[in-house]
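Researcher: Here's the sequence for the chain we discussed earlier.
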Amino acid sequence: MHRSLLAWLLLLVAAPSFSADFSHVKVELLPEQNAITPGGSVTVGFHFRMQRGWHIYWQNPGDSGQAPSITWTLPDGFTAGDILWPTPQLIALNSLADYGYTNEVLLMVPIQAPPNVKPGHLERLTAHVRWLVCDEICIPGDTSLNLRFQIHKHKSAVKTRNEYLFQIARRNLPQDFPEDWKIYGSAGKKDFRIGVETGGPVAKTTTAVFIPLHQNWIEGAPVQVFHASGNSFQLTVKKSDQLSPDVKSLEGVLVIKEKKGTKGYNVTIPLSE
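Model: Thanks. This is the structure I predict for it:
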């Protein structure tokens, strides 16, 4: 049975709290600051910690799986932004390739307060979060998590012990593509070829993978062929049989791994034939 189909035949439910501990994953809702001003904003984060070998998913889960989703219950006038997705990993499992996170990840969400909220009040935010955690099998989970914020009249830095986690999460967000680099692509009958000119020598230890924003653009399981020469490198990526033939560009994250670390770059790659 397909993993994603098997997953949704199971059901896990937890009571409202600041954290929830399930088999294979623990989930916490953490504030970056404990207070918010009228018309101001605050960032909260869903901290997932997975058992070794288990993973959750990026916004494009890849060949199977389901990305985490959040349903908010907010005070009048408050709004929640989109999830800020850190750079994902390519997770190969048998003949499938998933895009997601292992070990731990903080999914940040900005919260905006209305200008007419009254200072001195405590405001409660509730998030119902759903996820799928997978290894050889997949197990869905969902829980409701709550936070309370004090409304302050004046802007003040009321930070929490979670500050370091948020700093790491922001460093792991995909960056804008460097202005002095060039990226281009071409579409063949079976493959995409992606070229990058970096303006400087590419180290022998450098590798890269392209992770598409949308499903059914590429075949995830086949190895992406990487080749570096001088100040540039190329990737050859197998096209999906389900891809529309009129695609003019590829959107996604280019993940470059070097000796000093891994970085993700948001890219839109124009395609020539």
